[in-house]
Structure formats: structure tokens, C-alpha cells
Amino acid sequence: MSCFVGTLCEIWRYPVKSMLGERLSELMIGVGGGIGDRAWALRELDSGRIASAKKHPRLLEFRATYEVLPTSEHSGRVRIETPGGRVIYPNEAGASEEISAVIGQPLRLERAQSQRREKTGIDPATVFGDVSFEELKPGFTAQTLPDYFELMEGTFFEVAALHVLASASVEHLCRLQPGAAIDRRRFRPNLYIETGAEWTGFVEDAWLGGTLTVGTLRINGMQPALGCVTTTLAQSDLPRDLSVLRTSAKHHGGCVGVFGAVQAPGSLVRNGDSVSLSK
To answer: Where are the domains positioned within the chain?
Structure first.
């Protein structure tokens, strides 16, 4: 039995981990998520770990898009716009050094490698902003939390290949904290769904244990998407606002949207696709 959830209204891809990405009209989804999503990342040369905006907020001053679109057979060509307005490419000489100069730490652009398990470097003191560890990670403290998050094997994804977010949840957060700079872009979803009026509150809770169908794509294995300090950082026209994570932590354990696995890979999703839930 299935029920109508809403309509896919935004599709996002982030070619370089922790940089701003691109809004699309359609996207091919494979077993590893959107084709070309988080295909590149920056490695901290001193620690060997993958750099993230959790620790390096200025990464969100860069925007990565595809100048040549990727396919399942070809990697495409990524274009990076720097905060100063320059355009650089990951494979060109000096690209990593130019980004490193802005971030203030030596970094190297790298592509994801299959069958390799990476770790994202974090600062345990700031990874959840001013929200306590006990509130979001019971059993941990700033002293006992590891200084990294482990990534999925062969990818630069931290938890799952897809992040799905409902408009009702964003609207609910706005009502809970009037005046906060809450915006769906802060949560970096891949698929943003305009939900119907009958869906209210943190509606993704009702999706857990079910299968979400978006056009011909099927998503299962859904779990609450725990946010971090990245949701509070300045990006584009959005200011830094620690109350974003405070609000989601107070009312929903810091979770906004769901992470999911791809059940039906090789599916093309388009803006306007109908979204339904079956259990």
C-alpha cells in the first residue's frame, strides 16, 4: 500500500565534498548515489584525513559544478569557483595550492577511490556548534568523541548515498524558531520534496522502515539525518546562525531529513516527479 508524499522540486549535486554545489533539473542515480556527487574532496596533508566544512568553514565559500557532465562511464569535468571569482579545475597545476591558501592549511584535491575507507577530520570541540555532545551523541563527551567521522567505503559520503528532505520539516523548524536563518540549503539535501498540506511536523519520521519512490527511483534503508555545525555556517546569502542546530537538537535530536540507500539504481529523477511512500 502506498500513499502520495509530494513532488520533487529541487535536485542538488555537490561535486566536491563540503563546497557549494549545483541545482539541477534532472539527475541519474546509481547505487552509489547521484552520478558525480562528492566525486572529489580535499585531503589534509598533515593528518591524511579528508577535509570538511565541519572543521574548515571557508570551504563553503567555494562552488563546484560540472562543466562537462559525468556519466556512469566518464568522470566529466569539474569547475571550481573560488571566493575571489577565479575559475580553477581539480587536475590543473596549482589548484590545490590556491584552495590551501584560502583555507590556511595544506590540502590536496583527490578523487574518490573504490575499496578505500577514508576518515573526515573533525574538531570535537566545535563539530556540533554550541550543542552538547550528550544531547546528540549519548555516551560521548568532547574528550571521548573521536576526532574523525568514518566515511563509506570507496566514497566521500559519511553515512549514506542520498539525503532526502521534506519542505514540511523545514517549515516546521521555521515555526519552532521564528527569526532564525533556517533554509533548506543549509542541510545540503540531494532531493528536496515539496510535501502536501497533510504532511506536518518532522514528516520523514513516518518514512522510516518504508520505501520512498521518486519517479522510477526507489529509496529504502532510511535513517534520521543527524546534522552538525555545517548547518549553522555562512554560505551564499545565509549568515552564520548557531540557533539552526540548537533548534533541531532541542526538538528532534538534531536530525533533519533522512539518509537513504538506493534500491533501484540507474534511475533518472526529474523536477516534478511524483513521490510516494510504501510500507
So the answer is: 2-278
